[in-house]
Every structure is written in structure tokens, then in C-alpha cells.
Amino acid sequence: MNPPDRGQNWIGGAWSDSVSGQQLERRNPADHADLLGAAPLSTRAEMRAGIAAARQALPGWRATPAPRRGEFLFAWKRLLELKKDELARLITREEGKTLAEAAGEIQRGLNIVEYIAGEARRMSGETLPSELPANFIYTLRQPLGVVGLITPWNFPAAIPLWKLAPALVCGNTVVWKPSELTPFSSQFLARSLAEAGLPAGVVNLVHGRGQEAGDELVTHPDVAAISFTGSNAAGTAIYTRAAAGLKKVQCEMGGKNAVVVLEDADLELAAGHIIAGAFGSSGQRCTATSRLIVVEAAADRLLRLLLERIQSLKIGNGAEAGVQVGPIVSEAQYQRVLDYIQTGRTEARLCCGGQPYRENGCGNGWFIAPTVFDEVSVEARIAQEEIFGPVLPMLRVPDFEAALKAANQVKFGLAGSIFTRDVNRAFAAAERFECGMLHINSPTVGGEAHVPFGGIKATGVGERETGSTAIDFYSEIKVIYVDYTGQKRTGSLY
Question: Number of folded domains in the chain?
Fold first, then answer.
């Protein structure tokens, strides 16, 4: 095992220990004997220092031509490519996902950095005709200023990468508060920024809890905008607090993503994708398949296929070859998932799983057996609330119309999926499914670097992340009116 690491803040280009004296110990969720180290729980004063450093660095970074900022992102991507395997092992050890999942996450993040780096040469405005003679109108993009980023534990590389890249390419400086559960993956990325040559203070990393360090970041008057990814409860609180200061806010929150399977679907195909969507990353994805809505005529056969495939899943430490399902990230999340399973036992019929997993050397980690419930009602808690674990509720419906109604009968609207051979019903679902991203004959998880990511309803607030829309949140449009008549204008000025 590696020796324990020491969590530090990175402020103004220098690493420093927190003065708070409070720390949060992080252990490998697959093996509690493996201590990664302890991360600081920083004070409001330390967050203010990070904000001050970002404010000081802003004029220089803002004045750096956008193509030069893009060149930095390309250099950062090349450096991270060399460190990809090392970072993947760290993510697996700290967060619990398998090495394959960690490597895939990093690659997606690198693809996004590459795409956004190219935006440095595409941040064009437009010219517009004026109603007046000898007048010229054009627009340009400008940075917001100091931007606060609050990132979650379940994608400790991809989500910071897809927030940092557009924030930087647009000319903003950043204060970044990562999750307390993945401090060392976050420090790895911060060190790589320094190694790639980012000027001091352009990005500042401050560890801490949301109630203190996070709240200071959200409410500080020198912070122009907040981009948050995490739970619906935390996002709602952040949105409310930030809006009171008239800040620009982007929140990507929870999901309760449905897979609809119609009676004409390829059930073998559907079963494989449902397993991957529901139990990959132990269900700890905002896009995870968290509801299965099946037309009654296909339900029994699909359930048999799912239970057969679940029996063959390999559960264990994600660092081991062939493991498909890793542990839950922390004791608190582990207990939360078990509590939902207990609720499910009172609401539906348990088909498999439903308890901690202690076999095959998993007795010293936060493992839960992949769990399926059948005969779940639309109103059941396990069908309405985000569990964020390897738990799949199955709802039986009579037909396509009932399936769509059930799919839309939640407050969330992130991702969805439908399996059918009927092109007419597939396109009807594309129109009527209340979600930001719909997959046809593929799982709810997954996305591409050049494509917008986000949801509707209680899932998302603000512009979409990644793809062609990524820079919209991190920049402002300024309109320039040029009057080259050299004369005083007469008549109405509106």
C-alpha cells in the first residue's frame, strides 16, 4: 500500500496546510485498512484567500489572448495523457470504481478538454445591420470574472475537467471546491495544472465542507458565478444562496432515469444495457438507470434475463482484473442505500440482492449486492427518489402510453432510454420523454465530448455543460455600437 498522503490547499500557486486543524480521513472504500490520507476542512478565511488570489490573477489571464489560453489546455491534455494510468489507479483507490471505469472517465474528460481548447479559436461574435446609416454593430464574448466550481465525488476527474476547461478558455479565474470524499484525485489534477504552466492564482483549490468553505464561495461578492454538480438538495440551496447575490448559476443535480422496454424490443440487447446502466459504477452516476418500466407482455422474460446476468457479475475491488461492480463510496452513502433497500422491501417484491455483499474478499469494504425489485408502483419512494446505488426498481405497465406517463411522473429530467423496434414509437418517445438526453436502444449512461450535457425539471438550472454550449455559461455577450457618421444623431433615440 502507498503511504498516507497529506491534503493541502493550492492557493495563489502555492501548496499550504489548512489552519483549521480539522481533517477528514479517506480510506479505500473497497478496503478500509488502506488509508489514503486526510484532507483539510478549510475555514471561510482560507476560502477568502483563494478568492483573493483568483481576483488578483484575473487581469493577466483575461488579457491573455484566447488562442494562447487554448494552447495551455492542449498542453494540459498532453500532460494528463501521460499520467492517465496513475490517475486511474488513484480514482479507483479513492472513489471505488473499477480501473476500466476510471480510465473511461479520464478519457472522456480529456476529449472534452481537447474540444474546448479548440473553442479558443471559435469564440466569435457576430455583425449585425443597423437601422441607421453609417452605423456598425457587433458582439463579442467576455469572461465573467472569478468563477466558483463545486464538483462531486462520483466523477472526480471528468466533471472538474469539463468545468475547468471552458472556465479557463473563456478567460475566467477559478476557485474550485471539490468533494470532501475525493480530495487526492482533485489534488492530482491541480498539480497537473501547475506542471502544465498555468500562471499562479488562475486556479485555486480549497478543500472543505459545503456548510463553511462552500457557503463562503457561493456568497462571496467577488465571485461572479457558481457551477455546481451534485445532489438536488445541495443544488437547490446553492441556487437560492447564489441568486440572492445576483450571481450567474449553473446546477446539474439529480436524476431518476427511466429505461422503457416495449413488447417488440430486442430483450437480449435491452438486458445487457440495463445491467450496464444500473450497476456500472455501482449505480453511482447521475445518469444511471434507476427505473425500469416494462410493458407487461415482455416483463417476465426480461426479468429472467436480468437475474441470469446479475448472477454472473463479478463484485470486488475495482483494482482487480475482471471486476464489474465496485463498492459504495463511503459509509454514509452505504447506509443510505441500505435504508432505501429496506424501504423497498415494504413497497415491492425483492427479486435479488437486498443486502451487503461480503463474499470473495469483500468483507472489509462498503459493498452492496446488485438489487432488483419487481411490482413497484409509480408512487413508491424507490421509484421517485434518487438512491445512487446498485438498486433497480421495475415497474410493469400495460402499453406504450402508460410507459411514457410513468417515465415522466418524477420531478427529475436528466436521461432516459427506450428499447423498441418500432421507429414510429421511438420518434414519438423522442418528442414526449421529459428529459434532457434520450437514448434509443442504448443505455441511459454515456455521452460525447462535443455534445451538450444536462437535464430539465428539477435536474438542471442554467446553461448546458460540455459541447458547443459549454462556453455559454462562462462568458457574457457584449454588444458594441459604432457610429461613424461623426455627427450628432437627430430624432428619437428610443
Answer: 2
